[in-house]
Amino acid sequence: MTIDSGFNHITVLLNEAVEALSVRADGCYLDGTFGRGGHSRLILQNLGPDGRLLGFDKDPQAIATGQALAAEDGRFVVVQRSFAELGAEVAERGLAGKVSGVLFDLGVSSPQLDDPERGFSFLNDGPLDMRMDPSRGVSAAEFIATAPEEEIARVFKEYGEERFAKRMARAVVLRREQQPFTRTADLAEVLKVANPAWEKGKNPATRAFQGLRIHVNNELGDLETGLEAALDALEVGGRLAVISFHSLEDRIVKLFMRKLAKGEQDNLPRNLPVQYKPFEPRIRLIGKAQFASEAELKANPRSRSAVMRVAEKLR
Ligand SMILES: C[S@@+](CC[C@H](N)C(=O)[O-])C[C@H]1O[C@@H](n2cnc3c(N)ncnc32)[C@H](O)[C@@H]1O
Protein backbone atom coordinates (compact mmCIF):
# COMPACT_ATOMS: atom_id res chain seq x y z
CA MET A 1 0.00 0.00 0.00
CA THR A 2 1.26 3.46 -0.83
CA ILE A 3 1.67 5.80 2.11
CA ASP A 4 0.78 8.90 0.15
CA SER A 5 -2.48 8.30 -1.69
CA GLY A 6 -2.31 11.82 -3.13
CA PHE A 7 -5.20 12.94 -0.90
CA ASN A 8 -4.22 15.35 1.85
CA HIS A 9 -5.70 16.20 5.22
CA ILE A 10 -5.50 19.72 6.65
CA THR A 11 -5.39 19.42 10.44
CA VAL A 12 -8.15 21.35 12.21
CA LEU A 13 -7.47 23.40 15.39
CA LEU A 14 -3.85 22.25 15.25
CA ASN A 15 -2.23 24.74 17.65
CA GLU A 16 -5.32 25.06 19.83
CA ALA A 17 -5.58 21.30 20.44
CA VAL A 18 -1.90 20.80 21.21
CA GLU A 19 -1.90 23.85 23.50
CA ALA A 20 -4.97 22.45 25.26
CA LEU A 21 -3.02 19.30 26.08
CA SER A 22 -0.43 21.48 27.81
CA VAL A 23 2.31 19.06 26.72
CA ARG A 24 4.98 18.17 29.29
CA ALA A 25 8.36 17.29 27.77
CA ASP A 26 8.54 13.90 29.55
CA GLY A 27 4.82 13.11 29.37
CA CYS A 28 3.05 10.19 27.71
CA TYR A 29 0.32 11.20 25.24
CA LEU A 30 -2.34 9.40 23.21
CA ASP A 31 -3.60 10.54 19.83
CA GLY A 32 -6.81 8.51 19.41
CA THR A 33 -7.30 9.62 15.80
CA PHE A 34 -3.87 9.73 14.13
CA GLY A 35 -5.17 10.39 10.57
CA ARG A 36 -2.21 11.86 8.72
CA GLY A 37 -0.49 12.81 11.97
CA GLY A 38 -0.90 16.59 11.95
CA HIS A 39 -1.59 16.79 15.68
CA SER A 40 0.83 13.96 16.46
CA ARG A 41 3.77 15.72 14.76
CA LEU A 42 3.19 18.90 16.76
CA ILE A 43 2.88 16.91 20.01
CA LEU A 44 6.22 15.23 19.17
CA GLN A 45 7.80 18.65 18.60
CA ASN A 46 6.78 19.60 22.14
CA LEU A 47 8.08 16.38 23.70
CA GLY A 48 11.60 15.89 24.97
CA PRO A 49 13.69 12.71 24.49
CA ASP A 50 11.83 10.94 27.34
CA GLY A 51 8.35 11.83 26.12
CA ARG A 52 6.13 9.20 24.47
CA LEU A 53 3.24 9.30 22.02
CA LEU A 54 0.90 6.42 21.17
CA GLY A 55 -1.29 6.83 18.09
CA PHE A 56 -4.49 4.96 17.23
CA ASP A 57 -6.36 4.73 13.95
CA LYS A 58 -8.71 2.22 12.36
CA ASP A 59 -7.67 3.16 8.84
CA PRO A 60 -4.93 1.19 7.04
CA GLN A 61 -3.66 4.23 5.12
CA ALA A 62 -3.43 6.28 8.32
CA ILE A 63 -1.54 3.40 9.91
CA ALA A 64 0.93 3.25 7.00
CA THR A 65 1.66 6.97 7.50
CA GLY A 66 1.97 6.35 11.25
CA GLN A 67 4.42 3.49 10.75
CA ALA A 68 6.62 5.69 8.57
CA LEU A 69 6.65 8.31 11.33
CA ALA A 70 7.38 5.66 13.97
CA ALA A 71 10.38 4.46 11.91
CA GLU A 72 11.80 8.01 12.03
CA ASP A 73 10.93 8.82 15.64
CA GLY A 74 11.49 6.24 18.39
CA ARG A 75 9.23 8.14 20.81
CA PHE A 76 6.18 7.31 18.68
CA VAL A 77 4.22 4.06 18.25
CA VAL A 78 1.03 3.55 16.24
CA VAL A 79 -1.61 0.80 16.54
CA GLN A 80 -4.46 -0.15 14.21
CA ARG A 81 -7.20 -0.24 16.75
CA SER A 82 -10.29 1.75 17.64
CA PHE A 83 -9.82 4.29 20.40
CA ALA A 84 -12.76 2.50 22.01
CA GLU A 85 -10.16 -0.19 22.83
CA LEU A 86 -7.79 2.33 24.33
CA GLY A 87 -8.31 0.87 27.82
CA ALA A 88 -7.01 -2.54 26.78
CA GLU A 89 -4.07 -1.08 24.84
CA VAL A 90 -3.05 1.14 27.73
CA ALA A 91 -3.37 -1.74 30.22
CA GLU A 92 -1.22 -4.00 27.98
CA ARG A 93 1.46 -1.31 27.99
CA GLY A 94 1.25 -0.73 31.76
CA LEU A 95 0.11 2.85 31.21
CA ALA A 96 -3.30 2.85 32.96
CA GLY A 97 -3.62 6.01 35.07
CA LYS A 98 -0.25 7.28 33.77
CA VAL A 99 -1.22 9.08 30.58
CA SER A 100 -0.66 12.86 30.54
CA GLY A 101 -3.03 13.75 27.71
CA VAL A 102 -5.51 12.27 25.22
CA LEU A 103 -6.69 13.84 21.98
CA PHE A 104 -9.66 12.78 19.83
CA ASP A 105 -10.12 14.60 16.51
CA LEU A 106 -13.29 12.78 15.55
CA GLY A 107 -14.87 11.59 12.34
CA VAL A 108 -13.37 10.96 8.94
CA SER A 109 -10.27 12.45 7.36
CA SER A 110 -10.24 14.31 4.05
CA PRO A 111 -8.41 11.44 2.28
CA GLN A 112 -11.20 9.07 3.34
CA LEU A 113 -13.88 11.44 2.01
CA ASP A 114 -12.03 12.48 -1.12
CA ASP A 115 -10.87 9.07 -2.36
CA PRO A 116 -13.90 7.61 -4.20
CA GLU A 117 -12.50 4.09 -3.69
CA ARG A 118 -13.25 4.35 0.06
CA GLY A 119 -16.97 4.62 -0.71
CA PHE A 120 -17.84 7.63 1.49
CA SER A 121 -18.60 10.06 -1.31
CA PHE A 122 -21.96 10.82 -2.85
CA LEU A 123 -20.26 13.23 -5.26
CA ASN A 124 -17.63 10.89 -6.70
CA ASP A 125 -18.79 7.41 -7.55
CA GLY A 126 -17.10 4.49 -5.82
CA PRO A 127 -17.82 1.11 -4.21
CA LEU A 128 -20.39 1.51 -1.42
CA ASP A 129 -18.15 0.70 1.55
CA MET A 130 -17.65 3.56 4.09
CA ARG A 131 -15.62 1.53 6.59
CA MET A 132 -12.63 3.28 8.14
CA ASP A 133 -11.15 -0.21 8.51
CA PRO A 134 -12.30 -2.09 5.40
CA SER A 135 -10.99 -5.40 6.80
CA ARG A 136 -13.53 -5.47 9.65
CA GLY A 137 -17.27 -5.19 10.16
CA VAL A 138 -20.12 -4.70 7.72
CA SER A 139 -19.84 -2.39 4.70
CA ALA A 140 -22.54 0.15 3.81
CA ALA A 141 -23.50 -2.05 0.83
CA GLU A 142 -24.03 -5.11 3.06
CA PHE A 143 -26.03 -3.08 5.57
CA ILE A 144 -28.24 -1.58 2.86
CA ALA A 145 -28.73 -5.03 1.29
CA THR A 146 -29.77 -6.82 4.48
CA ALA A 147 -31.15 -4.44 7.11
CA PRO A 148 -34.91 -4.20 7.67
CA GLU A 149 -36.53 -1.05 6.29
CA GLU A 150 -37.20 0.34 9.82
CA GLU A 151 -33.54 -0.06 10.75
CA ILE A 152 -32.41 1.81 7.62
CA ALA A 153 -34.91 4.56 8.43
CA ARG A 154 -33.62 4.73 12.03
CA VAL A 155 -30.03 5.12 10.84
CA PHE A 156 -30.99 7.92 8.41
CA LYS A 157 -33.06 9.68 11.09
CA GLU A 158 -31.00 9.19 14.26
CA TYR A 159 -27.50 9.52 12.85
CA GLY A 160 -28.24 11.63 9.77
CA GLU A 161 -31.01 13.75 11.32
CA GLU A 162 -32.85 13.24 8.02
CA ARG A 163 -36.48 14.41 8.15
CA PHE A 164 -37.56 12.17 5.30
CA ALA A 165 -35.84 9.06 6.63
CA LYS A 166 -38.89 6.81 6.26
CA ARG A 167 -39.52 7.76 2.64
CA MET A 168 -35.89 7.37 1.77
CA ALA A 169 -35.63 3.96 3.45
CA ARG A 170 -38.76 2.84 1.57
CA ALA A 171 -37.24 3.91 -1.75
CA VAL A 172 -34.00 2.06 -0.92
CA VAL A 173 -35.85 -1.16 -0.04
CA LEU A 174 -38.06 -1.02 -3.15
CA ARG A 175 -35.01 -0.56 -5.36
CA ARG A 176 -32.87 -3.23 -3.68
CA GLU A 177 -35.56 -5.81 -4.48
CA GLN A 178 -34.85 -5.17 -8.17
CA GLN A 179 -31.11 -4.70 -8.00
CA PRO A 180 -28.65 -4.51 -5.08
CA PHE A 181 -26.73 -1.29 -4.42
CA THR A 182 -23.00 -1.58 -4.98
CA ARG A 183 -22.00 2.02 -5.86
CA THR A 184 -22.25 5.31 -3.97
CA ALA A 185 -23.60 7.31 -6.94
CA ASP A 186 -26.40 4.80 -7.49
CA LEU A 187 -27.51 5.05 -3.84
CA ALA A 188 -27.16 8.86 -3.88
CA GLU A 189 -29.42 9.05 -6.95
CA VAL A 190 -32.19 6.95 -5.33
CA LEU A 191 -31.98 9.04 -2.14
CA LYS A 192 -32.07 12.24 -4.15
CA VAL A 193 -35.27 11.22 -5.95
CA ALA A 194 -36.89 10.12 -2.65
CA ASN A 195 -36.05 13.39 -0.87
CA PRO A 196 -38.95 15.81 -1.45
CA ALA A 197 -37.33 18.92 0.09
CA TRP A 198 -33.81 19.69 -1.04
CA GLU A 199 -31.93 22.07 1.23
CA LYS A 200 -30.18 24.96 -0.47
CA GLY A 201 -26.51 24.28 -1.11
CA LYS A 202 -26.72 20.73 0.24
CA ASN A 203 -26.76 17.50 -1.74
CA PRO A 204 -30.09 15.79 -0.91
CA ALA A 205 -28.23 12.56 0.02
CA THR A 206 -25.91 14.31 2.54
CA ARG A 207 -27.81 13.47 5.72
CA ALA A 208 -28.57 9.88 4.82
CA PHE A 209 -24.91 9.33 3.87
CA GLN A 210 -23.79 10.82 7.19
CA GLY A 211 -26.19 8.47 9.01
CA LEU A 212 -24.87 5.44 7.15
CA ARG A 213 -21.24 6.37 7.81
CA ILE A 214 -21.84 6.87 11.53
CA HIS A 215 -23.65 3.54 11.74
CA VAL A 216 -21.17 1.51 9.69
CA ASN A 217 -18.27 2.75 11.85
CA ASN A 218 -20.16 2.69 15.18
CA GLU A 219 -18.92 6.24 15.64
CA LEU A 220 -21.16 7.26 18.54
CA GLY A 221 -20.74 3.97 20.43
CA ASP A 222 -16.95 4.18 20.04
CA LEU A 223 -17.01 7.77 21.27
CA GLU A 224 -18.92 6.91 24.45
CA THR A 225 -16.60 4.00 25.25
CA GLY A 226 -13.51 5.99 24.24
CA LEU A 227 -14.32 8.94 26.51
CA GLU A 228 -14.67 6.67 29.58
CA ALA A 229 -11.49 4.79 28.67
CA ALA A 230 -9.56 8.04 28.13
CA LEU A 231 -10.54 9.33 31.53
CA ASP A 232 -9.43 6.09 33.20
CA ALA A 233 -6.14 6.15 31.29
CA LEU A 234 -5.28 9.70 32.40
CA GLU A 235 -3.17 10.56 35.44
CA VAL A 236 -4.48 13.19 37.84
CA GLY A 237 -3.84 16.56 36.15
CA GLY A 238 -3.93 14.90 32.70
CA ARG A 239 -5.86 16.59 29.89
CA LEU A 240 -8.55 15.35 27.52
CA ALA A 241 -9.22 17.37 24.33
CA VAL A 242 -11.98 16.36 21.92
CA ILE A 243 -12.77 17.92 18.54
CA SER A 244 -16.25 17.12 17.17
CA PHE A 245 -17.68 17.83 13.74
CA HIS A 246 -21.42 17.49 14.22
CA SER A 247 -24.00 18.06 16.91
CA LEU A 248 -24.50 14.36 17.75
CA GLU A 249 -20.83 13.95 18.65
CA ASP A 250 -20.59 17.27 20.44
CA ARG A 251 -23.66 16.50 22.53
CA ILE A 252 -22.08 13.25 23.78
CA VAL A 253 -18.83 15.06 24.65
CA LYS A 254 -20.60 17.98 26.29
CA LEU A 255 -22.85 15.78 28.44
CA PHE A 256 -19.97 13.48 29.42
CA MET A 257 -17.84 16.41 30.55
CA ARG A 258 -20.69 18.23 32.31
CA LYS A 259 -21.73 15.13 34.21
CA LEU A 260 -18.24 14.57 35.58
CA ALA A 261 -17.49 18.23 36.23
CA LYS A 262 -20.83 19.35 37.61
CA GLY A 263 -22.71 16.25 38.75
CA GLU A 264 -25.43 14.02 37.37
CA GLN A 265 -28.40 15.69 35.70
CA ASP A 266 -31.10 15.93 38.32
CA ASN A 267 -33.87 14.03 36.59
CA LEU A 268 -35.29 12.31 39.66
CA PRO A 269 -39.00 12.95 40.33
CA ARG A 270 -39.64 15.79 42.77
CA ASN A 271 -40.61 14.99 46.39
CA LEU A 272 -38.75 11.68 46.31
CA PRO A 273 -36.86 11.17 49.60
CA VAL A 274 -33.25 10.95 48.33
CA GLN A 275 -30.19 10.92 50.50
CA TYR A 276 -28.03 13.95 49.84
CA LYS A 277 -24.50 13.03 48.82
CA PRO A 278 -22.10 15.85 48.07
CA PHE A 279 -20.90 15.76 44.47
CA GLU A 280 -17.19 15.35 43.95
CA PRO A 281 -16.14 16.32 40.44
CA ARG A 282 -13.81 13.95 38.56
CA ILE A 283 -12.75 16.57 36.05
CA ARG A 284 -12.67 20.34 35.65
CA LEU A 285 -13.57 22.02 32.40
CA ILE A 286 -10.78 24.01 30.77
CA GLY A 287 -12.26 27.07 29.10
CA LYS A 288 -15.37 27.07 26.94
CA ALA A 289 -16.07 25.30 23.68
CA GLN A 290 -13.52 26.51 21.09
CA PHE A 291 -14.09 27.07 17.40
CA ALA A 292 -11.84 27.71 14.42
CA SER A 293 -10.53 31.26 13.97
CA GLU A 294 -11.51 33.45 11.02
CA ALA A 295 -8.14 32.76 9.41
CA GLU A 296 -8.57 28.99 9.75
CA LEU A 297 -12.14 29.13 8.41
CA LYS A 298 -10.83 30.92 5.33
CA ALA A 299 -7.99 28.49 4.78
CA ASN A 300 -9.95 25.31 5.50
CA PRO A 301 -13.76 25.26 5.07
CA ARG A 302 -13.88 21.85 6.80
CA SER A 303 -13.04 23.61 10.08
CA ARG A 304 -16.44 25.36 9.93
CA SER A 305 -18.18 22.67 11.97
CA ALA A 306 -15.34 21.91 14.42
CA VAL A 307 -15.92 22.34 18.17
CA MET A 308 -13.25 21.51 20.74
CA ARG A 309 -13.91 20.79 24.42
CA VAL A 310 -11.17 20.28 26.97
CA ALA A 311 -11.13 18.86 30.50
CA GLU A 312 -8.55 18.05 33.17
CA LYS A 313 -8.73 14.99 35.41
CA LEU A 314 -9.06 15.77 39.12
CA ARG A 315 -9.37 12.25 40.52
C1 LIG B 1 -10.33 13.94 11.45
S1 LIG B 1 -9.23 12.63 11.16
C2 LIG B 1 -7.87 12.98 12.22
C3 LIG B 1 -6.83 13.83 11.58
C4 LIG B 1 -5.58 14.01 12.40
N1 LIG B 1 -5.81 14.71 13.64
C5 LIG B 1 -4.53 14.75 11.59
O1 LIG B 1 -4.14 15.86 11.98
O2 LIG B 1 -4.09 14.23 10.56
C6 LIG B 1 -9.97 11.30 12.00
C7 LIG B 1 -9.18 10.01 11.93
O3 LIG B 1 -9.61 9.21 13.01
C8 LIG B 1 -9.82 7.90 12.59
N2 LIG B 1 -10.87 7.38 13.49
C9 LIG B 1 -12.15 7.77 13.59
N3 LIG B 1 -12.77 7.09 14.57
C10 LIG B 1 -11.85 6.26 15.10
C11 LIG B 1 -11.88 5.31 16.16
N4 LIG B 1 -13.00 5.06 16.85
N5 LIG B 1 -10.74 4.68 16.47
C12 LIG B 1 -9.59 4.92 15.78
N6 LIG B 1 -9.51 5.78 14.75
C13 LIG B 1 -10.64 6.45 14.43
C14 LIG B 1 -10.21 7.98 11.15
O4 LIG B 1 -9.87 6.80 10.48
C15 LIG B 1 -9.38 9.18 10.68
O5 LIG B 1 -8.16 8.76 10.17
Automatic annotation (TrEMBL):
One of its GO terms (molecular function) is rRNA (cytosine-N4-)-methyltransferase activity. This is Ribosomal RNA small subunit methyltransferase H. The keyword S-adenosyl-L-methionine applies. Pfam families: Methyltransf_5 (PF01795). S-adenosyl-L-methionine binds at residues 37-39, 57, 83, 105, 112. Its EC number is 2.1.1.199. Belongs to the methyltransferase superfamily. RsmH family. InterPro entries: RsmH, SAM-dep_MeTrfase_MraW_recog, SAM-dependent_MTases_sf. Gene3D superfamilies: Putative methyltransferase TM0872, insert domain (1.10.150.170), Vaccinia Virus protein VP39 (3.40.50.150). It comes from the Bacteria. It comes from Pseudomonas japonica. Specifically methylates the N4 position of cytidine in position 1402 (C1402) of 16S rRNA. Its main location: cytoplasm. It is an enzyme of class 2 (transferase). One of its GO terms (biological process) is rRNA base methylation. The keyword Iron does not apply. GO terms for cellular component: cytoplasm. It is found in: Cytoplasm. It catalyses: cytidine(1402) in 16S rRNA + S-adenosyl-L-methionine = N(4)-methylcytidine(1402) in 16S rRNA + S-adenosyl-L-homocysteine + H(+).
